[in-house]
């Protein structure tokens, strides 16, 4: 009879541990997925901002005999522009390249309308994402204009402001959902741990009544919480890695190339799993350590 009761308790304990691990894994999988979406959304946002370019123009009026001198001046100016703080990438566009692009845009193959290079040479500049901010774009343009040799800088400021505001709004929503998932992770993992500790409330109280110190009672529960949290986090991360690998292989893009961000996301998910498990275990166990024996029947 005692053997059957012992086996029943072991099965119930095993089932309780599996439930906790699955709960942790599922919740942290969703939390990690939101983290991946947030990281890649930020990177994609930066990529889109870098496609919003400004054009810095050189003086188009100069004597043909000064072409060598002007070419050297434009080269020096281009190198200076590349070193400016707001500049992410700069591309030099010669008069010939500008004429070819104009003919391509207008669908003209003949040179009849382009006997001379009527378009000025210029520099196409992709700004750093932080300088696409409407509050900083004017300052960035002033810096570019101040470079000797640049006579004009043009950009579609309305488009930049609209894109920036829309991307910022999307990122705020994603960040909000990430915070919500973090709160849900805390609540769900805490509830799973509390149910597990609740099933052992009589054991906890019995150990206390026979003289065991609170630290002694807490220690095995904390060790078990660390192990369960780590296992649940590992399973969640493996599932997350598998889903993300399948997704990126299907679309043919690895998205973020900076592995440091993935590394810190793994550390965060693992830390959240273990930390919440341990903290929930301490609070749940402490509750029964402070309660009366009669309260155990009504908790």
Write up what this structure looks like.
InterPro entries: ABC3_permease_C, FtsX, FtsX_ECD. Belongs to the ABC-4 integral membrane protein family. FtsX subfamily. With 299 residues, this protein is α+β, with helices and mostly antiparallel strands. It has eight helices and four strands. Helix 1 runs antiparallel to helix 8.
Provide the descriptors you would attach to this structure in a database record.
cell membrane; transmembrane helix; alpha+beta; 8 helices; 299 residues; 4 strands; cell cycle
Short description:
Pfam families: FtsX, FtsX_ECD. The chain is of the alpha+beta class.
Count of alpha and pi helical runs: 8
Main structural class: alpha+beta
What is the element string, with H for helices and E for strands? Answer: HEHEHEHEHHHH
Strand order of the largest sheet: 2-3-1-4
Distance between the termini: 29 Å
State the total count of DSSP E strands: 4
| C-alpha-based Rg, rounded | 32 Å
Uncertain runs are none
Spatial shape: rod-shaped
Describe the biggest sheet? 4 strands, antiparallel
As a percent range, the share of strand residues is: 5-15%
Transmembrane segments: 20-39, 170-193, 221-247, 262-289
Domain ABC3 transporter permease C-terminal: 177-292
Family: Belongs to the ABC-4 integral membrane protein family. FtsX subfamily.
Pfam family, one: FtsX
Question: Could you outline the blueprint of secondary structure elements for this entry?
Answer:
Layout: H1 2-50, E1 53-58, H2 67-82, E2 87-93, H3 95-106, E3 122-127, H4 134-145, E4 150-154, H5 157-198, H6 201-209, H7 214-251, H8 259-290
Antiparallel strand pairs: 1-3, 1-4, 2-3
Helix pairs in contact: 1-5, 1-7, 1-8, 5-8, 7-8
